[in-house]
Amino acid sequence: MEMSTPIPEMTMIRHAPVFRAALLLAAVSYSATPPSLSAQMSKDEVESFLDGQADHLSDIAMQIWDLAELGYMETRSSALLADELEAHGFTVERGVAGIPTAFTATFGSGSPVIGIIGEFDALPGINQDRVAARQPIEGKIAGHACGHHLFGTASTAAALAAAEWLERTGNRGTVRMYGTPAEEGGSGKVYMVRAGLFDDADVVLQWHAGDRNSASPGSNLAVKSAKFRFHGVSAHAAGAPERGRSALDGVEAMDFMTNLMREHVPQETRIHYVITSGGSAPNVIPDFAEVYYYVRHPDPEVVREIFDRIVEASEGAARGTGTTVEHEVIGGAYSRLPVVSLQEVVYENLRRVGGVEYTPEERAFAEAIQASYGYDAPPIESAAGIRPFEWTQTYASTDAGDVSWTVPNSTLSTATWVPGTPAHSWQAIAAGGTTIGPKGMMVAAKTLALTAVDLFTSPEKVAAIQAEFAERRGADFEYRPLLGDRDPPLDYRASVAR
């Protein structure tokens, strides 16, 4: 298969963060590993090492599944992973970038510096037991509907395997695990990028839970989010309506104008909102109301422009309703910048590892899950296959986008869910809490670890990856975080957690 097919041009490719542009264009200065050293731990042995850790790693993932901690509150989940790395000789720095649950864990020395990203936050408002029928767990406010309990654990496992390989072979190089909190709307990685934590990395690897196995290059949508808070005057809605000014009227007027705007934005745009506060009783004119907005588009600059128009709509709504308004930017992330030559390395290792094979019990569970969809699902056997290497465009967003404009950053998805399962669903939580989830997790761990080995042993590959990255990013790019200079919103999930 020819895997170097040029990616279609996209307008968003002209944007990316500032970083060591001159270094990307320079030759890599470290030496390749002598064959006699690299032979001391083969790729088969790397996989065997991870197989020997599988039960322990599954236990860690299930502990995080049970905890289901929300963004910037993942105290125990973060500590489980950081403690595991520290116990295996990593130097761990906790509370980085002003975020208590963010950490870096480093092993080895010198170049190349290969980073691995891990997440561990859960989603609010959805939870599910480990069963194939809808069954929420009473009293639980969140669930791992995006598989981050597997994400963080597999990345930790890959870092441990890469460190084991460095130790056994005597190779020069550094593996660094990034514990990244609050991906779900909190933009945790953006603050870590802004703090310069990725600046000395040569390549950064990551993966994500999914319903099938894929390592194709592609992009997604940039995003900016904010809460708009309207203030009015309370009064009796029947006895003295003329004395009141409804903050909820301001929200509704803003939403109406924004919805009219949908006819006049680029067709790839996504705008969505939820009213988070609208008053407590119909007979009390609310003096406070709040609406939470997301704006998405493939091009970060278009996101900025549309967001500014929405701000103007809020100001017009306030003026028209006799209220006042201010907004707080909550998050913002760039779209992903793909590097095809890096994805080729990941893809070949994914093909080597292979997909997920179900036991009879797992297949019965999968069939019951698919029966709950209400739509035709892919064959269950597709969990064992590898999707073709081709360009993909997705419509979600992730704070890893900012990382991808700072340093070459890979993508990978493995079958931790039953084929056909969408992210952010109860079916994803259920499968991720059974043996199906850890099986896909280990596919990811092995693929990432083997990719790290390839990068440690081939300076030519690293140089080619960095050269492609520099070309795609462009020489004139200036990184401006979409979330500006605000501090991490450590309390952005506080109201949900009450």
Walk me through this protein's architecture.
It is globular and about 85 Å long. It starts with 20 loop residues before the first helix and ends with a helix. It has a five-stranded mixed sheet, with helices on both faces. A four-stranded antiparallel sheet has the order 11-12-10-13. By secondary structure, the protein is an alpha/beta fold. 39% of the residues lie in helices and 16% in strands. The chain has two domains: 11-219 and 335-473, Zn peptidases (Aminopeptidase); 222-333, Alpha-Beta Plaits, CATH 3.30.70. The chain has 15 helices and 15 strands.
* CATH homology superfamily of the largest domain: Zn peptidases
Give me the strand/helix succession. Answer: HHHHEEEEEHEHEEEEHEEHEHHEHEHHHH
What is the strand tally?
Answer: 15
Largest β-sheet summary:
5 strands, mixed
Helical content, roughly? 25-40%
Q: What strand order characterises the main sheet?
A: 1-2-6-3-7
Percent strand: 15-25%
How many helical elements? 15
Q: What is the overall silhouette?
A: globular
CATH A-level architecture of the largest domain: 3-Layer(aba) Sandwich
Tally the structural domains.
2
Q: Structural class, from secondary structure content?
A: alpha/beta
Average the pLDDT over all residues and give the rounded result.
92
